[in-house]
Amino acid sequence: MIKLVSIKYNTDHALVVRLNNGNYSLLFDQKIVLLSVVLTVLLALTVLGALALGATILSIETVIDVLLGQASQSQQLLVNEFRLPRIIAGIVAGFALAIAGSLIQHVVRNRLATPDVLGINEGAALLMLIVLISSNVGLMGPWWVAPVGALVSGILLLFIAKRLGTHGYRVILVGLALTYLVRSLSELMLAHINSLHASATYSWSVGNLNGRGYEVAEPVVLILAILMPFVLLISRQLRVFQLGEDIACTLGTHIRRVQFMAICLAIILAGLAVGIGGPIGFVAIAAPVVINKIIGGTQLAIINTGLLGGILVVVADTLGRLLVAPLEIPVGVLTSILGGPFLLWVLLSEKNT
Protein backbone atom coordinates (compact mmCIF):
# COMPACT_ATOMS: atom_id res chain seq x y z
CA MET A 1 0.00 0.00 0.00
CA ILE A 2 1.35 3.44 -0.97
CA LYS A 3 1.50 5.92 1.90
CA LEU A 4 2.10 9.65 1.67
CA VAL A 5 5.07 10.53 3.89
CA SER A 6 5.79 14.21 3.26
CA ILE A 7 5.25 17.15 0.96
CA LYS A 8 7.85 19.92 0.93
CA TYR A 9 9.86 22.25 -1.29
CA ASN A 10 13.52 21.73 -2.10
CA THR A 11 16.14 24.42 -2.65
CA ASP A 12 15.00 24.88 -6.27
CA HIS A 13 11.43 25.64 -5.14
CA ALA A 14 10.24 22.32 -6.56
CA LEU A 15 7.46 20.39 -4.88
CA VAL A 16 8.74 17.05 -3.55
CA VAL A 17 6.21 14.35 -2.64
CA ARG A 18 7.66 11.35 -0.78
CA LEU A 19 5.90 7.99 -0.63
CA ASN A 20 6.42 4.75 1.34
CA ASN A 21 8.87 6.00 3.99
CA GLY A 22 10.82 7.96 1.44
CA ASN A 23 11.50 4.99 -0.86
CA TYR A 24 9.78 6.82 -3.72
CA SER A 25 9.56 10.50 -4.49
CA LEU A 26 7.81 12.63 -7.09
CA LEU A 27 9.23 15.98 -8.17
CA PHE A 28 6.92 18.75 -9.38
CA ASP A 29 8.07 22.17 -10.54
CA GLN A 30 6.32 24.77 -8.39
CA LYS A 31 5.70 27.10 -11.33
CA ILE A 32 4.19 24.32 -13.44
CA VAL A 33 1.91 23.18 -10.61
CA LEU A 34 0.72 26.74 -10.01
CA LEU A 35 0.17 27.29 -13.73
CA SER A 36 -1.84 24.06 -13.91
CA VAL A 37 -4.17 25.32 -11.20
CA VAL A 38 -4.57 28.71 -12.89
CA LEU A 39 -5.27 27.18 -16.30
CA THR A 40 -7.76 24.70 -14.84
CA VAL A 41 -9.68 27.53 -13.18
CA LEU A 42 -9.48 29.61 -16.36
CA LEU A 43 -10.78 26.68 -18.41
CA ALA A 44 -13.72 26.23 -16.02
CA LEU A 45 -14.56 29.94 -16.28
CA THR A 46 -14.24 29.78 -20.06
CA VAL A 47 -16.67 26.85 -20.21
CA LEU A 48 -19.17 28.69 -18.01
CA GLY A 49 -18.93 31.75 -20.25
CA ALA A 50 -19.33 29.67 -23.41
CA LEU A 51 -22.38 27.94 -21.95
CA ALA A 52 -23.94 31.30 -21.08
CA LEU A 53 -23.25 33.13 -24.35
CA GLY A 54 -24.99 32.61 -27.67
CA ALA A 55 -28.11 33.64 -29.57
CA THR A 56 -29.92 33.17 -26.26
CA ILE A 57 -27.87 34.62 -23.41
CA LEU A 58 -28.11 32.95 -20.02
CA SER A 59 -26.85 34.18 -16.68
CA ILE A 60 -24.05 32.30 -14.93
CA GLU A 61 -26.52 31.44 -12.16
CA THR A 62 -28.84 29.87 -14.72
CA VAL A 63 -25.99 27.87 -16.23
CA ILE A 64 -25.04 26.55 -12.79
CA ASP A 65 -28.69 25.65 -12.15
CA VAL A 66 -28.75 23.75 -15.45
CA LEU A 67 -25.61 21.81 -14.51
CA LEU A 68 -27.23 20.96 -11.17
CA GLY A 69 -30.44 19.90 -12.92
CA GLN A 70 -32.52 22.68 -11.37
CA ALA A 71 -33.37 24.79 -14.46
CA SER A 72 -36.31 24.67 -16.85
CA GLN A 73 -36.53 21.99 -19.52
CA SER A 74 -35.86 24.44 -22.35
CA GLN A 75 -32.75 25.78 -20.63
CA GLN A 76 -31.46 22.28 -19.94
CA LEU A 77 -32.04 21.36 -23.58
CA LEU A 78 -30.14 24.43 -24.79
CA VAL A 79 -27.14 23.87 -22.52
CA ASN A 80 -26.91 20.09 -22.26
CA GLU A 81 -27.87 19.13 -25.80
CA PHE A 82 -26.49 21.98 -27.92
CA ARG A 83 -23.78 23.99 -26.20
CA LEU A 84 -22.04 21.62 -23.78
CA PRO A 85 -21.31 18.80 -26.27
CA ARG A 86 -19.82 21.30 -28.71
CA ILE A 87 -17.67 22.84 -25.97
CA ILE A 88 -16.41 19.43 -24.84
CA ALA A 89 -15.51 18.59 -28.44
CA GLY A 90 -13.62 21.90 -28.70
CA ILE A 91 -11.68 21.26 -25.49
CA VAL A 92 -10.64 17.79 -26.64
CA ALA A 93 -9.60 19.04 -30.09
CA GLY A 94 -7.63 21.95 -28.64
CA PHE A 95 -5.97 19.72 -26.04
CA ALA A 96 -4.80 17.24 -28.67
CA LEU A 97 -3.67 19.91 -31.14
CA ALA A 98 -1.65 21.83 -28.57
CA ILE A 99 0.19 18.74 -27.34
CA ALA A 100 0.88 17.63 -30.91
CA GLY A 101 2.38 21.04 -31.64
CA SER A 102 4.52 20.95 -28.52
CA LEU A 103 5.96 17.52 -29.35
CA ILE A 104 6.83 18.46 -32.93
CA GLN A 105 8.34 21.80 -31.92
CA HIS A 106 10.68 20.10 -29.46
CA VAL A 107 11.70 17.38 -31.91
CA VAL A 108 12.38 19.75 -34.82
CA ARG A 109 13.60 22.47 -32.41
CA ASN A 110 11.72 25.16 -34.24
CA ARG A 111 8.67 27.00 -32.94
CA LEU A 112 7.15 27.17 -36.40
CA ALA A 113 7.09 23.39 -36.75
CA THR A 114 3.49 22.38 -36.07
CA PRO A 115 0.99 19.92 -37.60
CA ASP A 116 -0.78 22.66 -39.57
CA VAL A 117 2.48 24.02 -40.99
CA LEU A 118 3.92 20.59 -41.85
CA GLY A 119 0.88 19.39 -43.80
CA ILE A 120 -0.26 16.80 -41.26
CA ASN A 121 -3.58 18.50 -40.58
CA GLU A 122 -4.20 19.01 -44.28
CA GLY A 123 -3.48 15.36 -45.00
CA ALA A 124 -5.95 14.29 -42.33
CA ALA A 125 -8.56 16.69 -43.72
CA LEU A 126 -8.02 15.49 -47.30
CA LEU A 127 -8.76 11.87 -46.47
CA MET A 128 -11.80 12.94 -44.47
CA LEU A 129 -13.02 14.94 -47.49
CA ILE A 130 -12.54 11.95 -49.78
CA VAL A 131 -14.66 9.79 -47.49
CA LEU A 132 -17.30 12.50 -46.99
CA ILE A 133 -17.65 13.20 -50.70
CA SER A 134 -17.56 9.59 -51.87
CA SER A 135 -20.15 8.36 -49.36
CA ASN A 136 -23.42 9.49 -47.81
CA VAL A 137 -22.26 9.44 -44.19
CA GLY A 138 -22.41 13.23 -43.86
CA LEU A 139 -20.24 15.43 -41.65
CA MET A 140 -20.94 13.22 -38.64
CA GLY A 141 -19.15 10.40 -40.45
CA PRO A 142 -16.04 8.38 -39.67
CA TRP A 143 -13.83 10.66 -37.55
CA TRP A 144 -11.25 7.87 -37.34
CA VAL A 145 -10.35 8.42 -41.00
CA ALA A 146 -8.53 11.64 -40.08
CA PRO A 147 -5.75 9.98 -38.02
CA VAL A 148 -5.15 7.62 -40.94
CA GLY A 149 -4.79 10.59 -43.29
CA ALA A 150 -2.46 12.27 -40.82
CA LEU A 151 -0.27 9.16 -40.68
CA VAL A 152 -0.07 8.97 -44.48
CA SER A 153 0.84 12.65 -44.68
CA GLY A 154 3.36 12.29 -41.85
CA ILE A 155 5.06 9.30 -43.48
CA LEU A 156 5.33 11.22 -46.75
CA LEU A 157 6.76 14.22 -44.90
CA LEU A 158 9.39 12.12 -43.10
CA PHE A 159 10.34 10.29 -46.30
CA ILE A 160 10.92 13.49 -48.28
CA ALA A 161 12.62 15.28 -45.38
CA LYS A 162 14.98 12.34 -44.87
CA ARG A 163 16.06 12.54 -48.52
CA LEU A 164 16.65 16.29 -48.36
CA GLY A 165 18.00 16.47 -44.81
CA THR A 166 16.40 16.54 -41.39
CA HIS A 167 17.47 20.03 -40.34
CA GLY A 168 14.61 22.01 -38.84
CA TYR A 169 14.25 24.53 -41.65
CA ARG A 170 14.30 21.79 -44.32
CA VAL A 171 11.51 19.91 -42.56
CA ILE A 172 9.44 23.10 -42.42
CA LEU A 173 10.00 23.84 -46.13
CA VAL A 174 9.00 20.30 -47.06
CA GLY A 175 5.97 20.60 -44.79
CA LEU A 176 4.89 23.87 -46.38
CA ALA A 177 5.18 22.38 -49.86
CA LEU A 178 3.15 19.37 -48.73
CA THR A 179 0.55 21.65 -47.12
CA TYR A 180 -0.04 23.64 -50.31
CA LEU A 181 -0.12 20.49 -52.44
CA VAL A 182 -2.68 18.72 -50.25
CA ARG A 183 -4.76 21.87 -49.79
CA SER A 184 -4.94 22.39 -53.55
CA LEU A 185 -6.18 18.81 -53.96
CA SER A 186 -8.86 19.45 -51.33
CA GLU A 187 -10.01 22.63 -53.06
CA LEU A 188 -10.04 20.85 -56.42
CA MET A 189 -12.33 18.19 -54.99
CA LEU A 190 -14.64 20.79 -53.46
CA ALA A 191 -14.90 22.57 -56.80
CA HIS A 192 -16.34 19.48 -58.49
CA ILE A 193 -19.21 18.60 -56.15
CA ASN A 194 -22.68 20.11 -55.88
CA SER A 195 -22.86 23.54 -54.27
CA LEU A 196 -24.95 22.51 -51.24
CA HIS A 197 -22.65 19.66 -50.29
CA ALA A 198 -19.59 21.79 -51.08
CA SER A 199 -20.74 24.58 -48.76
CA ALA A 200 -21.19 22.28 -45.77
CA THR A 201 -18.00 20.35 -46.49
CA TYR A 202 -15.92 23.48 -47.02
CA SER A 203 -17.15 24.89 -43.72
CA TRP A 204 -15.78 21.80 -41.98
CA SER A 205 -12.54 21.81 -44.03
CA VAL A 206 -11.51 25.18 -42.58
CA GLY A 207 -12.15 24.02 -39.00
CA ASN A 208 -15.66 23.99 -37.58
CA LEU A 209 -17.24 22.58 -34.41
CA ASN A 210 -20.84 23.13 -35.48
CA GLY A 211 -22.75 19.89 -34.91
CA ARG A 212 -19.83 18.15 -33.23
CA GLY A 213 -20.36 16.63 -29.81
CA TYR A 214 -20.10 13.56 -27.65
CA GLU A 215 -20.29 11.12 -30.57
CA VAL A 216 -16.78 12.14 -31.65
CA ALA A 217 -15.40 13.51 -28.37
CA GLU A 218 -15.96 10.37 -26.28
CA PRO A 219 -13.94 7.90 -28.40
CA VAL A 220 -11.16 10.47 -28.82
CA VAL A 221 -11.02 10.99 -25.04
CA LEU A 222 -10.61 7.24 -24.58
CA ILE A 223 -7.74 7.17 -27.07
CA LEU A 224 -6.15 10.19 -25.39
CA ALA A 225 -6.33 8.39 -22.04
CA ILE A 226 -4.36 5.53 -23.58
CA LEU A 227 -1.81 7.77 -25.31
CA MET A 228 -1.14 10.30 -22.53
CA PRO A 229 1.14 8.05 -20.41
CA PHE A 230 3.34 7.56 -23.48
CA VAL A 231 3.20 11.29 -24.25
CA LEU A 232 4.29 12.18 -20.72
CA LEU A 233 7.11 9.63 -20.85
CA ILE A 234 8.35 10.90 -24.21
CA SER A 235 8.08 14.54 -23.13
CA ARG A 236 10.30 13.80 -20.15
CA GLN A 237 12.95 12.37 -22.47
CA LEU A 238 12.57 15.26 -24.91
CA ARG A 239 13.41 17.61 -22.07
CA VAL A 240 16.85 15.99 -21.87
CA PHE A 241 17.41 16.93 -25.52
CA GLN A 242 17.51 20.58 -24.51
CA LEU A 243 20.86 19.84 -22.88
CA GLY A 244 22.28 18.73 -26.23
CA GLU A 245 22.34 15.43 -28.10
CA ASP A 246 25.76 14.44 -26.72
CA ILE A 247 24.61 14.80 -23.12
CA ALA A 248 21.35 13.04 -23.93
CA CYS A 249 23.28 10.08 -25.37
CA THR A 250 25.52 10.03 -22.32
CA LEU A 251 22.44 9.81 -20.10
CA GLY A 252 21.28 6.77 -22.06
CA THR A 253 18.61 8.39 -24.22
CA HIS A 254 18.05 6.78 -27.62
CA ILE A 255 17.65 9.99 -29.60
CA ARG A 256 16.31 8.66 -32.90
CA ARG A 257 13.86 6.31 -31.18
CA VAL A 258 12.51 9.06 -28.94
CA GLN A 259 12.19 11.48 -31.86
CA PHE A 260 10.37 8.88 -33.95
CA MET A 261 7.95 8.02 -31.14
CA ALA A 262 7.30 11.70 -30.42
CA ILE A 263 6.53 12.41 -34.08
CA CYS A 264 4.22 9.39 -34.30
CA LEU A 265 2.32 10.46 -31.19
CA ALA A 266 2.04 14.02 -32.49
CA ILE A 267 0.70 12.82 -35.84
CA ILE A 268 -1.95 10.65 -34.18
CA LEU A 269 -2.99 13.47 -31.82
CA ALA A 270 -3.26 15.95 -34.68
CA GLY A 271 -5.31 13.46 -36.69
CA LEU A 272 -7.69 12.92 -33.78
CA ALA A 273 -8.17 16.68 -33.44
CA VAL A 274 -8.88 17.06 -37.16
CA GLY A 275 -11.38 14.22 -36.92
CA ILE A 276 -13.31 16.28 -34.37
CA GLY A 277 -13.30 19.78 -35.80
CA GLY A 278 -11.36 19.85 -39.03
CA PRO A 279 -7.94 21.47 -39.52
CA ILE A 280 -8.06 24.19 -36.84
CA GLY A 281 -4.99 26.39 -37.23
CA PHE A 282 -2.95 28.55 -34.83
CA VAL A 283 -3.58 26.48 -31.68
CA ALA A 284 -0.71 24.03 -32.22
CA ILE A 285 1.82 26.84 -32.52
CA ALA A 286 0.37 29.31 -30.01
CA ALA A 287 -0.21 27.12 -26.96
CA PRO A 288 3.34 25.66 -26.70
CA VAL A 289 4.98 29.03 -27.35
CA VAL A 290 2.89 30.85 -24.73
CA ILE A 291 3.48 28.14 -22.12
CA ASN A 292 7.23 28.18 -22.78
CA LYS A 293 7.27 31.96 -22.44
CA ILE A 294 5.54 31.68 -19.07
CA ILE A 295 7.57 28.89 -17.47
CA GLY A 296 10.86 29.64 -19.22
CA GLY A 297 13.86 27.36 -19.30
CA THR A 298 13.74 23.91 -20.84
CA GLN A 299 10.53 22.76 -19.18
CA LEU A 300 8.07 20.77 -21.26
CA ALA A 301 4.71 21.29 -19.57
CA ILE A 302 2.54 18.99 -21.65
CA ILE A 303 -0.64 19.12 -19.55
CA ASN A 304 -0.51 22.92 -19.27
CA THR A 305 -0.04 23.19 -23.02
CA GLY A 306 -3.08 21.00 -23.60
CA LEU A 307 -5.20 23.01 -21.18
CA LEU A 308 -4.30 26.26 -22.93
CA GLY A 309 -5.10 24.67 -26.29
CA GLY A 310 -8.56 23.76 -25.04
CA ILE A 311 -9.11 27.29 -23.77
CA LEU A 312 -8.05 28.85 -27.08
CA VAL A 313 -10.42 26.69 -29.13
CA VAL A 314 -13.41 27.28 -26.83
CA VAL A 315 -12.79 31.05 -26.78
CA ALA A 316 -12.43 31.21 -30.57
CA ASP A 317 -15.53 29.07 -31.13
CA THR A 318 -17.56 31.22 -28.73
CA LEU A 319 -16.48 34.39 -30.51
CA GLY A 320 -17.40 32.76 -33.81
CA ARG A 321 -20.93 32.18 -32.52
CA LEU A 322 -21.28 35.77 -31.27
CA LEU A 323 -19.61 38.15 -33.72
CA VAL A 324 -22.08 37.82 -36.62
CA ALA A 325 -24.99 36.09 -34.84
CA PRO A 326 -27.24 34.43 -35.86
CA LEU A 327 -24.64 33.36 -38.45
CA GLU A 328 -21.43 31.66 -37.34
CA ILE A 329 -17.77 32.13 -38.19
CA PRO A 330 -15.99 28.75 -38.26
CA VAL A 331 -13.52 28.41 -35.41
CA GLY A 332 -10.71 27.67 -37.86
CA VAL A 333 -11.25 31.00 -39.62
CA LEU A 334 -10.92 32.96 -36.38
CA THR A 335 -7.84 31.06 -35.23
CA SER A 336 -6.21 31.62 -38.64
CA ILE A 337 -6.87 35.36 -38.39
CA LEU A 338 -5.14 35.37 -35.00
CA GLY A 339 -2.35 33.18 -36.34
CA GLY A 340 -0.87 35.77 -38.70
CA PRO A 341 -0.02 38.41 -36.08
CA PHE A 342 1.09 35.68 -33.70
CA LEU A 343 3.55 34.26 -36.23
CA LEU A 344 5.02 37.72 -36.74
CA TRP A 345 5.40 38.07 -32.97
CA VAL A 346 7.18 34.71 -32.77
CA LEU A 347 9.56 35.63 -35.58
CA LEU A 348 10.34 39.03 -34.06
CA SER A 349 10.89 37.57 -30.60
CA GLU A 350 13.21 34.91 -32.05
CA LYS A 351 15.19 37.64 -33.83
CA ASN A 352 15.64 39.61 -30.63
CA THR A 353 16.88 36.62 -28.59
Automatic annotation (TrEMBL):
Keyword Transit peptide: no
Record keyword Metal-binding present: no
One BP annotation, GO: siderophore-iron import into cell
Subcellular locations according to the entry: Cell membrane
Membrane topology listed for this record: Multi-pass membrane protein
Residues annotated as transmembrane: 32-58, 87-105, 117-137, 143-161, 173-196, 216-234, 260-288, 294-315, 327-348
Pfam families the record matches: FecCD
Gene Ontology terms, MF aspect: transmembrane transporter activity
GO terms under cellular component: plasma membrane
Protein keywords: Cell membrane, Membrane, Transmembrane, Transmembrane helix, Transport
Entries under SUPFAM superfamilies matching the protein: ABC transporter involved in vitamin B12 uptake, BtuC
CDD domains found in the cross-reference section: TM_ABC_iron-siderophores_like
Family recorded in the similarity comment: Belongs to the binding-protein-dependent transport system permease family. FecCD subfamily.
Name the UniProt record assigns to this protein: Iron ABC transporter permease
Annotated source species: Spartinivicinus marinus
